[in-house]
């Protein structure tokens, strides 16, 4: 069978059009996570992330990426521990909350303390409690690799992100 669809946009990162490049990247559907830690003063920190992926089964390693200009960069690169909370389809408000740089993200939120006192969010599909394993250069981002120390999962459906919009499985 011949694919008759036409390419809507073509380009190269060398073109300097970061919006077009970002649009093409957005064609890859991802899950939505909130990554949490505690800063050096013990204050909780967290943000919405869709750049999470597994790295290795043995040893159990995962990674995620954080923009170098993020106000949370120091907290995550020095805390020693972080948790990746995989959001359920019904947790879009939680994703929006942790994506808002002006929000008091933990106000009124019932969290459990995980390894290293890391906040664990309620109602998630899965969570991975990690020790910071490595930090790598990733251009305008840093790549944080976590050694998974504990994990948990429950049934449900994931919150997805595709082409700049939230989605659900089958919708």
TrEMBL record:
- Family annotation (InterPro entries): Flavin_Rdtase-like_dom, NADH-dep_flavin_reductase, Split_barrel_FMN-bd
What UniProt keywords are attached to this protein's entry?
A: Oxidoreductase
What highest taxon heads this organism's lineage?
Bacteria
Q: Which GO terms describe its molecular function?
A: FMN binding; riboflavin reductase (NADPH) activity
> For the Flavin reductase like domain, which residue ranges apply?
25-168
Tell whether Oxidoreductase is among the UniProt keywords: yes
Q: What Pfam families has UniProt attached to this entry?
A: Flavin_Reduct (PF01613)
* Family membership: Belongs to the non-flavoprotein flavin reductase family.
> What's the protein name?
Flavin reductase like domain protein
Origin organism is: Tistrella mobilis (strain KA081020-065)
């Amino acid at each position: 069978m011949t694919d008759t669809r036409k390419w809507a946009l073509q380009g190269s990162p060398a073109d300097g059009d970061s919006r077009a490049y970002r649009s093409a990247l957005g064609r890859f559907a991802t899950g939505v996570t909130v990554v949490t830690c505690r800063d050096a003063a013990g204050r909780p920190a967290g943000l919405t992330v869709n750049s999470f992926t597994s790295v290795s089964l043995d040893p159990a390693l995962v990674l995620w990426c954080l923009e170098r200009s993020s106000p949370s960069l120091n907290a995550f690169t020095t805390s020693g521990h972080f948790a990746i909370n995989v959001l359920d389809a019904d947790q879009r408000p939680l994703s929006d909350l942790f994506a808002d740089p002006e929000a008091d993200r933990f106000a009124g939120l019932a969290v459990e303390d995980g390894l290293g006192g890391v906040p664990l969010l309620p109602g998630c599909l899965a969570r991975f409690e990690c020790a910071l394993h490595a930090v790598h250069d990733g251009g305008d981002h840093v790549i944080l690799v976590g050694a998974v120390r504990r994990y948990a999962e429950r049934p449900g459906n994931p919150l997805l992100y595709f082409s700049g919009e939230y989605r659900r499985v089958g919708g």
